[in-house]
Design brief:
Helices cover 25% and strands 22% of the residues. It contains three helices and three strands; from the N terminus they run ββαβαα. Pfam families: ABC_tran.
């Protein structure tokens, strides 16, 4: 069950997970009562063996999957404001930087004006080379 995109009363957490439970089959419980709080302004990493629920939890946090029980509360107006880096980086080596940003922007439903502004912000923030540079050559 997904919580509203508001933190619980009295919480300073940007992400608050309470009683997270997720089962894929009768024998495959991957989250069993997980509680966690990620404080605002922090970077958080998940470590654990394959199959322990790291990707499942992240998928639930960003709204791609839902919990069977428990809640996730977020201090964001929209789940599209949440970013994460998966274990396997999913960049096509043949794409240029601009194509990659456009691809993911459209995948997340960004309109052209918002996407253009966000690309400009990322180029400045990350000091990226030319948008025509191919990913494989970075």
């Amino acid at each position: 069950m997904m919580g509203e995109c508001e933190p619980p009363p009295g919480s300073a957490g940007a992400v608050v997970v309470r009683g997270a439970y997720k089962r894929y089959t009768s024998s495959a419980v991957v989250l069993n009562g997980l509680n966690m709080t990620v404080e605002r302004g922090t970077v958080y990493g998940f470590l654990g063996p394959s199959g322990c629920g790291k990707t499942t939890l992240l998928s639930c946090i960003v709204g791609r999957n839902s919990l069977d029980a428990g809640s996730i509360s977020l201090m964001v107006k929209s789940r599209s404001n949440i970013g994460y880096m998966p274990q396997e980086l999913a960049l096509s080596k043949e794409f240029r930087i601009a194509e990659t940003m456009s691809y993911y922007g459209h995948l997340y439903g960004m309109d052209s004006a918002v996407l253009k502004k966000r690309k400009e912000e990322l180029y400045a923030l990350l000091d990226l080379p030319s948008e025509e540079k191919v990913i494989e050559k970075l």
